[in-house]
Amino acid sequence: MTGTVYTETVVYLAPEAFAADVPYQVVIVTLEDGSRVTGRILGERVAIDDRVEQVELRDGVPFFRRVT
Amino acid sequence: MRPVAIAAAGKTAFGAFPDRDLRSLAVEACQKCLKNGHVSPSEVQAFHLGNFAGPSFVGQNHLAPYVSTAVGIRDVPATRFEAACASSGSAFFHAFLAVASGVYDCVLVAGVEKMTSQTTARVTEILAGAGDCSGEIKAGSTFPSLFAMIARRHMYQFGTTLEHLAAVAVKNHANGALNPDAHMRKVITMEQALAARPVAEPLHLYDCSLISDGAAAVLLMPLDRARDFTDKPVRILGVAQASDFVALDHKKDITTFPAVRRAAQKAYEMAGASPRDIQFAEVHDCFTIAEIVAIEDLGFVERGAGGPFEASGATARAGEKPINASGGLKSKGHPVGATGVAQLCDIVAQIRCEAGDMQLKRNSLGLAQNLGGSGASCVVSILGNV
Predict the structure, then answer these.
(1) Active-site positions of B?
(2) Number of structural domains, chain B?
(3) Within a domain: residue B126?
């Protein structure tokens, strides 16, 4: 699944469940069909308009990596 | 529908009050309000309570009768309204409908939240419940991070800058320094705002409103009846509530809040007013970006021009369109369920010339905008001199 970054943020203050991952980047990705999904970024930080591909699905949450 | 007025108002200070429980805060606000209107609890015909997450914050459910009976209000319908941060705005909207339609002649509306007995991590978790827990929250979004994503996109689409965001924080903290009931009365500089630690980029510490305890209440009556109880009734000229998707990823364009635009449009229509007529407003600055988007969605400024408008000083106390003369949620604090009604109390105080050091000169027509979550609920109220 590939798409384009619509928006993103890096989270520094998180609830206990995600505290170990801080800081982590959350993205909203616009997919090929125009729909959007909220996911996480693996690897280097992305910016709006970057192309990303889904590399993992953890408990229903898509993890994306930038397509170089 | 007959004309409706706010006949009385009362609220607690906002802050961190370890020795105060939820019920005592709500009771204080209600009693102050009833006293302000010289109304006894037995005259109240219905009680509407706005509260976001009492069951999570303090483990108490069934909150409306829990509070009303403690105020001495017996037998009448007592209902809790929840619309995230628009909980008490929503309670107010429905109370307006009940009085305007002629069903009741006296309705007490209150809002309360007790947040500070939980840790910041736990509060963050509870607040996240106002987002979509099946999607964005599961992915690790926090409330600040949802507004951070809105800010990022607004910066990308319109060139809004970190300095624009900071200008909102600096203004609201300057205003809050004049507010004896504010949680934080410290003035901050632009440098401090920009240098503060990140919460969720691009939002830093001072871009985010505070975790607070507090309560507020207003009493609604038909305008004619209100005149028997106060020589300063404040007319509710327009009020509307609207909704939108909870999840940010369900929305076409996250740089605007359709629920704000829709509620504002309906409230303006009801009041026969335009954005230009509004002399001052209390808007929902849960995060600095929220104020920038709000003034655009309320029609005070064009789409995308909110940042420069704030930076120009136009929204300061001395500016052409004072926004959040009370200090806003940023410095007053944001006890979530109390905020909507507290904004109304602030507008009422301005119109009645009882705002003390915060008093504005042009105070005849005010607007309150109360936003729920990241835009899924909004209540816009327009109040004026009779």
Answers:
(1) 85, 334
(2) 2
(3) no
